[in-house]
Write a structure and sequence with these properties.
By secondary structure, the protein is α+β, with helices and mostly antiparallel strands. It has two domains: 6-43 and 94-162 and 266-307, FAD/NAD(P)-binding domain (3-Layer(bba) Sandwich); 163-264, Polyamine Oxidase, Chain A, domain 2. Helix content is 28%, strand content 31%. It has helices at residues 14-25, 65-76, 95-101, 142-149, 156-161, 217-223, 228-243, 291-307, and strands at residues 6-10, 29-34, 46-48, 51-53, 80-83, 86-89, 105-108, 112-118, 121-126, 129-133, 135-138, 163-174, 184-186, 193-195, 209-214, 250-265, 272-274, 279-281. Strands 7-2-1-11-18-17 form a six-stranded mixed β-sheet, covered by helices on one side. Helix 1 runs parallel beside helix 3 (95-101) and helix 1 runs parallel beside helix 8 (291-307). The longest helix is centred in the last third of the chain and has 17 residues, at 291-307. It starts with 5 loop residues before the first strand and ends with a helix.
C-alpha cells in the first residue's frame, strides 16, 4: 500500500479499530462501519437511567507487552484503570474502544448487508450505505463474516471451524444498604461470574449498587432462547441468595444474551487474506477468547496490508 488507498473496515470493535487506527496513521483513507448504536462491540457499557454496566468484557488481561503498553497509555490518559488483575475502561469499558477511535471516520448504526467485488475493489451496501473501497477489512464475529461473504466463498470453510461460547448476562441494581459480601465471585451455572460493577474505578455516584452476572457456557446455551424477563426471573433470585440480599432490595434487573461471547475454538492464525481481491478478515476468533486477541488480529491485518506495496 504505497499510495493512499480507500479502506473500508466493517466492525468497530477492538479488532477493527486497531486495524483502522494503524492504517489511518499511515495516511490511508479509512472508513469504519458498525451496525451498533455506538462503537466498541463486545467492549460495551450499557447505560440505563443513572446506572452503567459493563455487560460484555469484564476485565482485560494483557500478556503481549505491546498490548500492555497500549493499555498502560490509556491508564495514563485517564481512559482506563487497573482492576482485578487486569485493566478496565473508565468510566466504562466502552472508553477503551472510544479512545482507540479518536480521530477516525466511524459510522455507527449502519449494518453492511452486501459486500460485492467491483472493478475498482469493493462495493458495500446496507441501509444508508453505498460505499466503494479498494480494500475491505472484515472485523466481525466469524459466523457473521461467513454470512456476509456467502457459503460459496473460499473463507467459508475456515470460518466455519471457529466455535464460540454463548453468555447470558444479567445487570442488577440493588439498594446500597443491601449486603456486598465480595467484589468478584467465580462460580458455576448461572453465577459463573458475579462482579460488583460499580466497585470498578470511576463508577462512583450511581444511585444503586450495580452487579453484573454472567452464566457459564452450558447454562447460557441451555437458556439462550428464553425471553429476557424469564432470564431475570431465573437468575436474579440466585444472585440475591448469593449476596444474602432481600427481594425488595432489588430495584433494577435486565438481561442480555451474547450468542458469540468468547471464542472456544480459534482459527489459529491472525487473519484470512485474499490479496488478489483486497479482502482481509479477522477478529478475536482468529487467535483466542480475549480482547487482546482481537487487538493482535487487528494489528497483524494492518501490518499485512501495509507491507503490500
Ligand atoms: C460476556 C462477555 C464477556 C467477556 N469477557 C471478557 C473479559 O473479561 N476479558 C477479555 O479480554 N475479553 C472478554 N470478552 C471478549 C471480548 O469482548 C472480545 O474478545 C472482543 O471485544 C472482540 O473484539 P472484536 O473487535 O473482535 O469483535 P466485536 O467486539 O464483536 O466487534 C465486532 C463489531 O462488528 C459489528 N458488526 C457485525 N456485523 C456487522 C455488519 N454486517 N455491519 C456493520 N457492523 C457489523 C458489531 O456491531 C460489533 O461492534 C468477553 C465477551 C463477552 C461477550
Amino acid at each position: 500500500m504505497g499510495e493512499q488507498v480507500r479502506v473500508a473496515v466493517i466492525g468497530a470493535g477492538i479488532t477493527g479499530l486497531t486495524c483502522a487506527r494503524a492504517l489511518a496513521d499511515a495516511g490511508h483513507a479509512v472508513t469504519v462501519f458498525d451496525k451498533g448504536r455506538g462503537i466498541g462491540g463486545r467492549l460495551a457499557t450499557r447505560r440505563t437511567d443513572d446506572l452503567r454496566f459493563d455487560h460484555g468484557a469484564q476485565v482485560l488481561p494483557a500478556t503481549d507487552p505491546d498490548f500492555a503498553a497500549l493499555l498502560q497509555g490509556m491508564v495514563r490518559d485517564g481512559h482506563a484503570a487497573p482492576w482485578d488483575g487486569g485493566i478496565v475502561g473508565t468510566p466504562g469499558m466502552v472508553q477503551i474502544p472510544r479512545a482507540l477511535a479518536q480521530g477516525l471516520d466511524v459510522r455507527s448504526g449502519v449494518m453492511v448487508t452486501a459486500l460485492d467485488p467491483d472493478p475498482a475493489g469493493w462495493h458495500l451496501r446496507g441501509e444508508g450505505i453505498d460505499h466503494r473501497a479498494d480494500i475491505v477489512v472484515l472485523a466481525i464475529p466469524a459466523p457473521q463474516a461467513r454470512d456476509l461473504l456467502g457459503a460459496g466463498h473460499a473463507f467459508a470453510a475456515p470460518l466455519a471451524q471457529v466455535r464460540y461460547q454463548a453468555s447470558v448476562t444479567v445487570m442488577a441494581g440493588l439498594d446500597p444498604a443491601a449486603p456486598r459480601p465480595f467484589v468478584t465471585h467465580r462460580g458455576t451455572g448461572a453465577l459463573a461470574w458475579v462482579a460488583q460493577d460499580g466497585a470498578k474505578p470511576g463508577r462512583d455516584g450511581q444511585p444503586l449498587t450495580t452487579w453484573v452476572v454472567q452464566a457459564d457456557p452450558d447454562f447460557s446455551m441451555a437458556h439462550i432462547d428464553l425471553p429476557f424477563a424469564e432470564l431475570v426471573d431465573l437468575i436474579a433470585p440466585q444472585l440475591l441468595a448469593l449476596l444474602g440480599a432481600r427481594p425488595d432490595q432489588l430495584h433494577h434487573a435486565v438481561a442480555h444474551r451474547w450468542l458469540y461471547a468468547l471464542t472456544d475454538v480459534a482459527l489459529g492464525r491472525p487473519f484470512l487474506a485474499d490479496d488478489a481481491t483486497g479482502l482481509i478478515v479477522g477478529g478475536d476468533w482468529a487467535l483466542g477468547p480475549h480482547a487482546e486477541h482481537g487487538w493482535a488480529s487487528g494489528r497483524a491485518m494492518a501490518a499485512h496490508l501495509l507491507a503490500r506495496t
